[in-house]
Design brief:
Arginase, Chain A; single chain; two-stranded antiparallel ribbon; eight-stranded parallel beta sheet; alpha/beta
Length: 297
């Protein structure tokens, strides 16, 4: 059985009416789980604040907690909190960390179905709907548990600028990102290499889906050539699917299944986990996630 870590608090995070990152996204995914027989839900724990402080500034974390206590508010033009958002962020990050721990302990995959997402969050500020760097926290926790190397593959349509900023000086973590270019947030050029551990794949909108699949796979192959990870973490955004209102890519569910299957084969015997990021048509998000989860299982 493939464990899917989630928590009711992640549904209570309310960014406000009309915001793209709505609870309906996660509701659609969780509803689809009922038809996926090799999947079982598990409760996401709260992430350890000691771990979070290794990634994010203490003053920033205090600000998030205080804003939630005050009932919520705006962190930037795109990112807002409600009273429940701090708990949701701790559970979303906790699910990612729990998925990594499960994978390392059992040598098999897992998925974290949480919100808010995380790949735009910076050390000292929220950004792009994201509060905490969920995949970075999972990667750091894996290294602390003895994983020698961690690969992060981000196929969200937007560049994971927060993830890159948080790991670009860590040679034990490699980051591969396929993303639309030019597009928000304006980062992710191929020349951005960190300490040789960053592999960006910026591509224009509207290409055939097989082009995106093959170009991402070529970057993954370069990243792991002579460099065997102990764990792969997918920043699993599904806003690169055709028709998403916040992107212009053309992927379909079968392409996520193909990429997941290829990644599992290339990583073996090391496990692969997925962590939910974007995707803003709930039914399409559920379609893409179901394909990814089935391939993971």
């Amino acid at each position: 059985m493939l464990p899917v870590f989630t928590h009711p608090a992640c549904l209570a995070h309310d960014p406000g009416p009309g915001h793209p990152e709505q609870p309906a996204r996660l509701l659609a995914l969780l509803s689809r789980l009922d038809s996926l027989t090799p999947v079982e839900r598990r409760e996401s724990p709260q992430v350890s604040l000691d771990l979070v402080r290794t990634v994010h500034d203490a003053a920033y974390l205090d600000r998030l907690a205080a804003m939630a206590d005050a009932g919520g508010g705006a962190l930037d033009a795109d990112t807002t909190m409600s009273a429940a958002s701090w708990e949701a962020a701790l559970r979303s990050a906790g699910g990612a960390v729990a998925a990594a721990a499960y994978a390392l302990d059992h040598g098999s995959g897992a998925f974290s179905a949480g919100r808010p997402p995380g790949h735009h969050a910076l050390a000292g500020s929220a950004m792009g709907f994201c509060l905490l760097g969920n995949v970075v926290l999972a990667a750091r926790s894996a290294l602390a548990r003895g994983a020698g190397r961690v690969l992060i593959v981000d196929w969200d349509v937007h560049h994971g600028n927060g993830t890159q900023a948080l790991v670009e000086r860590e040679p034990a973590i490699r980051f591969v990102s396929l993303h639309q270019w030019p597009w928000w947030p304006g980062t992710g050029a191929e020349r951005e290499r960190g300490v040789g551990n960053i592999f960006n794949v910026p591509r224009p909108a509207g290409l055939p889906p097989t082009r995106y699949v093959e170009d991402l796979w070529a970057a993954v192959a370069r990243a792991i050539d002579g460099w065997a990870p102990s764990l792969a973490i997918v920043s699993a955004g599904f806003d690169a699917m055709a028709g998403d209102p916040l992107g212009g890519f053309t992927l379909e569910p079968e392409h996520y299944a193909e990429l997941t299957t290829r990644l599992r084969a290339a990583m073996s015997p090391a496990p692969v986990i997925g962590v939910l990021e974007g995707g803003y048509i709930p039914s399409r998000l559920a379609d893409g996630a179901a394909a990814h989860l089935t391939a993971l299982a």
